[in-house]
């Protein structure tokens, strides 16, 4: 996959590094020659020096053949311009980094398939870490209508030794919640469990639930025998 990234700041370069490691062909655009040099020499990406909202630079960087484009510039207005140009040149998959939520609707209207609110994402992550310290990680879907959380199973909790089916049938397990992933040991791969999967102490589960059921799910999973 050919991925074009506008902006070789911390976000752009970190994303480029990950994508290169995954085997994608990556090119970044930035006005800073030092950032472009770093992208080439340290990240292994192609780099084009110039404005990411210049049609000449975008065409030179191969925007017409890009499978995905990420607008990760430092300014929302510039990112919006880059999204608009990307849509014009027929890029099938467009992502936009957003600093201020006022730009959410303009980004959508311009053709962004995914909008990543970096400030809101950081704040939400920190709030979750404070409010739910026992949760290893949490992801939000459908504008926060669905939560997926990762929880460790304490040694003496109620669910140890029980099957997924038994847990699902327990009246204390919130309706609409579901265990969708299971990792028996930190060094083992995450697996998709079935009804007969038994939860072991020290294992990890992935649970999908509604925001209003978070506390109930956590209390149930971590409840002592």
From TrEMBL:
<feature type="domain" description="RCK N-terminal">
    <location>
        <begin position="1"/>
        <end position="116"/>
    </location>
</feature>
<dbReference type="InterPro" id="IPR036291">
    <property type="entry name" value="NAD(P)-bd_dom_sf"/>
</dbReference>
<dbReference type="InterPro" id="IPR050721">
    <property type="entry name" value="Trk_Ktr_HKT_K-transport"/>
</dbReference>
<keyword id="KW-0406">Ion transport</keyword>
<dbReference type="InterPro" id="IPR036721">
    <property type="entry name" value="RCK_C_sf"/>
</dbReference>
<protein>
    <submittedName>
        <fullName>TrkA family potassium uptake protein</fullName>
    </submittedName>
</protein>
<keyword id="KW-0813">Transport</keyword>
<dbReference type="InterPro" id="IPR006037">
    <property type="entry name" value="RCK_C"/>
</dbReference>
<dbReference type="GO" id="GO:0006813">
    <property type="term" value="P:potassium ion transport"/>
</dbReference>
<feature type="domain" description="RCK C-terminal">
    <location>
        <begin position="136"/>
        <end position="223"/>
    </location>
</feature>
<dbReference type="Pfam" id="PF02254">
    <property type="entry name" value="TrkA_N"/>
</dbReference>
<dbReference type="InterPro" id="IPR003148">
    <property type="entry name" value="RCK_N"/>
</dbReference>
<dbReference type="GO" id="GO:0008324">
    <property type="term" value="F:monoatomic cation transmembrane transporter activity"/>
</dbReference>
<dbReference type="Pfam" id="PF02080">
    <property type="entry name" value="TrkA_C"/>
</dbReference>
